[in-house]
Amino acid sequence: MAPLLCDTIAPLLFFLTFTMTIMKRLILGIIGMLTLGFVPMHAQTFLGHLQQQKQGEGKITVTQSKAITDLVNGSAVASPEKNTTTQNNNTPGTKTVAARQQSTIDKAREAERKADMALGKKASTQTNKNAEAARRAATAAEQKKAEAATEAARREEQLAEMRRQEAAAKAKQEAEALARQQAAEEARGKAETAEAEKRAQWAREAEAYKKKLESERKSQIRYQDDDEMSIPTIDMRKKVMRGSRKVTGYRVQAFAGGNTRADKMKAQQAGNAIKMRFPDQPIYVHFYSPRWICRVGNYRSLGEAEKMLRAVRKMGYKAATIVKGKITVN
Fold first, then answer.
1. The dihedral of CA 294, 299, 304, 306: what is its sign?
2. What is the pLDDT of residues 261-289, one digit of tens each?
């Protein structure tokens, strides 16, 4: 913007300087014309006054050279160095006119010099003002340019800061998502591991229970004679009591698991083990949503149920408990 402003001001300064020079020359020409016109007029008036003949006064005769006559009449203008007079023209009137002419010329020159000084001072002042205005305009343009550059830099810095914040937020979100994914994978792995351990534990328990049953079966075998002793047999079939009815009583719940096939096997194994230990007690293995359970007996009194509970717990079912509900009696 500053170069454009300087290109606009330069022609304007040139035009003002040219105009002032023309005006100066015009004023000097007018002053010279007025001065040259005033000198002959004044000289003619003064000579005419001297040569007037009045009553009671003498007559004055003025004799002057052709150069002075031409100068007075405006025919020729010569410098004081070129004006020559003869020895016969050394009259008092001639000297007075020449002195006045010289004084008028000197005043004209002094006026011209003062006009030149005034015009030069005015032109210098105007030039200084124009230069100061141009300098101020250039300074303002540079200041605006600097402010615009500062504003652009500030906006660029704000944009960069916003980009950095967005990048940081995105990186944080990605890190959080990755952490959640890793946590989910770890939780899934732990759940799978726990499930595998649980299944393995169930398998070990089932195997141990199987071995226990086998050991109990073998322990019940006694030496027997062909005539007196026989191997006891247990009827594991479900029996329906004829003429039975439902009343409120108690049962011992020996096992309560989940709804899987393994839980069903555990419930059945618990029922078989208790049935082998207490053949006269009824065993109930049923699925009561959402789990498989194994319950023992039909007891009308709480004391009978507690006695059976202690016996079941001694078999290893520490989680056995007494439940109240409908029982079957004859």
1. positive
2. 999 999 999 999 999 999 999 999 999 88
- Are 151 and 37 in contact by the 8 Å Cβ rule? The answer is no
Q: What is the pLDDT of residue 74?
A: 55
DSSP string for residues in 190-247: HHHHHHHHHHHHHHHHHHHHHHHHHHHHHHH-----TTT--------S----TT-EEE
Domain extent at residue 323: 245-329
Q: Please give the mean pLDDT across all residues of the chain.
A: 77
Amino acid at 10: A
Q: Is residue 225 part of a domain?
A: no
Residue 34 in any domain: the answer is: yes
Averaged pLDDT, 282-299: 92
CA distance 289 to 274: 23
**Under a CB-based contact definition with an 8 Å cutoff, are residues 310 and 321 in contact?**
no
CA distance 96 to 82: 18
In the structure, what pLDDT confidence band is assigned to residue 226 with cuts at 50, 70 and 90? very low
Phi/psi of residue 103, nearest 5 degrees: -65, -40
Q: What is the pLDDT of residues 249-262, one digit of tens each?
A: 999 999 999 999 99
Q: What's the total number of domains in the chain?
A: 2
CATH number at residue 257: 3.30.70.1070
